[in-house]
Amino acid sequence: MRDRMRNLTLNLLLAGLFLACSGSGFSQVTDGVQIVNGKDGVGMSQSIPVGNFQVDGKQLGANVSVKVGKGYFVQFCPQKDGSGKCEGFGEGTHNLVSTDFSFIRVGTGELPSTTASASAQVGAPANNPTAATPARSTGVAPLTVYEQKNWGGRAQILAPGMYRSFRGEFGKINDNQARSVIIAKGFRARFCSEEGMNFRGAGDCESHEEGRHNLRFANTISFIEVTDLSDTSPADEKMPVVLYEDALQGGKMQGFDEGTYLASGGQFKKLGNDQAQSIRVKDGYRASVCSDEPASGGEPAGCEEYGPGRKDFKSRKTASYLRVWKDSK
Question: What range does the domain containing 7 cover?
Fold first, then answer.
């Protein structure tokens, strides 16, 4: 019964998502999937996190389009288990042929077959076994934040990651307005009154796991972090190389081991494409950060190479390609 109620909650949220959201306040929209109440990507909109969702498409209106960011795909399927003849899209803006769907699948990598079953792996970039993939595909929203106590008022779905109000990442929830939350099984969320000097949460903070919670520090929340508890990858700061969203090693961060990483393969999932501004390299390693991925058979362009230490990039908002290797010296 609990899972059925969560699916119903998501159903109602998506059915009403166009009532109070213009889409302009989402920092991650261009990196993921955005469903729009209107043709050609024009109209009220809402971002959809990676995962599988049961949704009654007929409630969304007659004219619906979708914006898909680089490295993402979305499928709209007629059956609630994700089966049947699905309508699928990769990067770009697309008008849906029909809103007669009951299931939405959002993932990273190349678009799978439109008849793929719900058990198909979501998020694995094709022909790239080393690509970072979402740690979980879930039928419910990892976190839903409400502007009123006891889960009332406007609501905003948040996927794993960091969200800062001053950067417009709270969506439909204004700064200092988060009052209650629903957290899905397998996730943890941290709520803080301040972003902090590094913009990774500070001040009065509280953490919660699965369940419905009225926030202790309601009316003060300016920072939210959602964590997938099934993600067993090493902590970012323990990795040989860490890229940071801001200069001076601030903001969101993502750690990388030895290897080659491409934004188009969904391997910058915590930062997004062209969002890094600084780097930290551990002793014994080197890293090459490039603004442009290699063309077919070519080499990456706009590269900067770094040895051990903490540095700001010469070019702001870069990193579509990263190579990490051990220093032979």
Answer: 2-108
